[in-house]
Design brief:
The protein has a single domain, classed as STAS domain (Transcription Regulator spoIIAA, 2-Layer Sandwich), CATH 3.30.750.24. The protein is about 45% helix and about 20% strand. The chain is built from 5 helices and 7 strands. The relative contact order is 0.16.
Length: about 120
């Protein structure tokens, strides 16, 4: 029973995304891990949230300790779709170990990245 409870708690921590609004900006706080275990669910949630008109989106990575190629793929797809629709996505609060993955993948030149949430909001406003 304890093992099942620990797995449930771990799964909830992996999936937990907070979604808020600041002015006309959707702020999505990503979970601690963004990998093959939760990428399909996160992609589905993104698509639901961002359906319809173009959006201004801030992806807050301040809780994210790990991103894998599956997470990077989702980010590319969502960003591409939003840009085609006239929307804009800014990433903020990326920890050094996650930023290193973005650098190694060559993604720092693809995404708009800001140090803080406040700076990202100014960029999107």
């Amino acid at each position: 029973m304890i093992r099942e409870e620990n797995l449930l708690i771990r799964d909830l921590m992996i999936m937990a995304m907070d979604i808020t609004h600041v002015q006309d900006i959707i702020v999505i706080s990503l979970p601690q891990r963004f990998d093959a275990n939760n990428a399909p669910e996160i992609e589905s949630e993104f698509r639901t949230l961002l359906a319809g008109s173009p959006r201004k989106v801030l992806l807050d990575f301040s809780r994210a300790d790990y991103i894998a190629s599956a997470g990077l793929r989702v980010l590319l797809l969502i960003t591409r779709d939003q840009m085609k629709a006239g929307g804009k996505i800014v990433l903020a609060g990326i920890k050094p170990q996650v930023h290193k993955v973005f650098e190694m993948a060559g993604f720092t030149s693809i995404f708009t990245i800001r140090i803080s949430r406040e700076e990202a909001i100014r960029t999107l406003s």
